[in-house]
């Protein structure tokens, strides 16, 4: 397919997940509706990741595509029907007999993802070593955390030109090269292993029998305490030692001389647990996908896509596609216009006055962004003779001492007493 046709075929998935509830706004959002070009909901303005949008299926396809044409193809399977690679996510189901009084019931816990290791004991121990609220137990806060991090750390629009908005053929080509390069050079998946075994392998021998028996023997309370003793392996992040018998995370790109506590295997920028241990290794640091890409390319503050065009603008410490430096409320183009930053988003003057301006305690009208104001304890006044007055005797207080009480200001104790008693 030539590039021209490829570009024509591209559309953002606007139907995808529409109507899904916002987990943050709850009832206040009528349901997810994708903005024309921003990756946010038109109804509540939260990101896609705040909504219960992506099914595990769609997430698996995204990660499958990430691993396509990499050395990690063992983690994906191609569906016979459509040939689309899908992530073979390792789901771990644990069953524990629970005895309550006389009845013995079986309690089943499903981890939506677990490290793909042969030895399930290692996978279980790995889970115990990460914070409870981040353990991806189906139906729990941890499973939601994992899904949100998948959306945040590995945006589909950082790897798939078809998820980007109106790219030129040249931008598509540049993006494809960029993705190919990071797949070849920096992308990796963590490995959960016992440091002793890694050391033994490096020395060219298998672990000694002595090592093995210490793992398999049933421990008395004393020997359990002994198993908690520190080993001489150190975590690359926190520099603390690993406890004897605990698994560590290794990153092939970093070399097997480095290891991490499972809870220390985090992105250098956002400090979040690297989702499914998918990392990007650069200059001696671990990054999540988003923050690796940010370290290589400018990202548009409007559409959240990486910018592959030479023409873009910088404003307010962020980068913007020229066509995307727009009012966050009405989408009008802001080049050459007056705008106000509201929560790091530019807003045009009419929208600011309509939606965000604070009103004056004196005249109750909105305060224009450019005019002088007096602000005190979250209350505002026009800095004029008409508005900033003593609430009792109407004496102008500009340049004077004043006594504030809630939204009122007074010139003197006497005036304050008259109004508040
Ligand atoms: Zn929302
Ligand atoms: Zn919404
Ligand atoms: Zn650590
Ligand atoms: Zn990050
Ligand atoms: Zn943009
Ligand atoms: Zn506007
Ligand atoms: Zn006023
Ligand atoms: Zn007064």
Automatic annotation (TrEMBL):
Gene3D superfamilies: Cysteine Rich Protein. It comes from the Eukaryota. It is found in: Cell junction, Focal adhesion; Cytoplasm, Cell cortex. Residues 233-296, 298-358 form the LIM zinc-binding domain. Keywords: Cell junction, Cytoplasm, LIM domain, Metal-binding, Repeat, Zinc. Pfam families: LIM, PET. Residues 134-166, 200-224 are annotated as: Disordered. Residues 155-166 have a biased composition (Basic and acidic residues). One of its GO terms (molecular function) is zinc ion binding. GO terms for cellular component: cell cortex; focal adhesion. Residues 92-199 form the PET domain. The keyword Cytoplasm applies. Its main location: other. Scaffold protein that may play a role in cell adhesion, cell spreading and in the reorganization of the actin cytoskeleton. May inhibit cell growth. Regulates cranial neural crest migration. Acts together with prickle1 to control axial elongation. Belongs to the prickle / espinas / testin family. PANTHER family: LIM DOMAIN-CONTAINING PROTEIN (PTHR24211), TESTIN (PTHR24211:SF1). This is Testin. It comes from Pelobates cultripes.
């Amino acid at each position: 397919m030539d590039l021209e046709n490829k570009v024509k075929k591209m559309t953002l998935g606007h139907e995808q997940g529409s109507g899904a509830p916002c987990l943050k706004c709850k009832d206040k959002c009528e349901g997810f509706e994708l903005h024309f070009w921003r990756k946010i909901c038109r109804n509540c303005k939260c990101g896609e990741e705040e909504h219960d949008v992506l099914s595990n299926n769609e997430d698996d396809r995204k990660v499958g595509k990430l691993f396509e044409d990499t050395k990690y193809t063992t983690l994906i399977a191609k569906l016979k029907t459509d040939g689309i690679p899908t992530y073979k996510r390792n789901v771990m189901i644990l069953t524990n007999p629970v005895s309550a009084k006389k009845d013995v019931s079986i309690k089943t816990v499903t981890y939506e993802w677990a490290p793909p290791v042969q030895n399930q004991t290692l996978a279980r121990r790995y889970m115990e070593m990460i914070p409870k609220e981040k353990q991806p137990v189906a139906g729990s806060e941890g499973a939601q955390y994992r899904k949100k991090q998948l959306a945040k750390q590995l945006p589909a629009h950082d790897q798939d030109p078809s998820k980007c908005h109106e790219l030129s053929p040249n931008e598509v080509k540049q993006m494809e090269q960029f993705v190919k390069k990071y797949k070849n050079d920096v992308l990796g998946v963590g490995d959960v292993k016992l440091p002793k075994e890694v050391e033994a392998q490096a020395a060219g021998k298998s672990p000694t029998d002595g090592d093995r028996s210490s793992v398999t023997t049933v421990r008395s309370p004393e020997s359990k305490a002994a198993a908690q003793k520190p080993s001489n392996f150190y975590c690359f992040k926190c520099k603390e030692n690993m406890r004897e018998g605990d698994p560590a995370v290794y990153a092939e790109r970093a070399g097997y001389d480095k290891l991490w506590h499972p809870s220390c295997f985090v992105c250098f920028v956002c400090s979040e647990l690297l989702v499914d241990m998918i990392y990007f290794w650069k200059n001696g640091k671990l990054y999540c996908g988003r923050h690796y890409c940010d370290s290589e390319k400018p990202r548009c503050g409007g559409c959240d896509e990486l910018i592959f065009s030479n023409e873009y603008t910088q404003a307010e410490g962020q980068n913007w596609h020229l066509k995307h430096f727009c009012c966050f409320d009405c989408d009008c183009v802001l080049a050459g216009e007056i705008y106000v930053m509201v929560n790091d988003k530019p807003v045009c003057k009419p929208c600011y006055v309509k939606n965000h301006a604070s009103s004056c305690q004196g005249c109750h009208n909105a305060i224009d962004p450019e005019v002088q104001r007096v602000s005190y304890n979250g209350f505002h006044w026009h800095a004029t003779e008409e508005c900033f007055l003593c609430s009792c005797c109407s004496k102008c207080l500009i340049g004077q001492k004043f006594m504030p009480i809630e939204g009122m200001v007074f010139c003197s104790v006497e005036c304050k007493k008259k109004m508040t008693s």
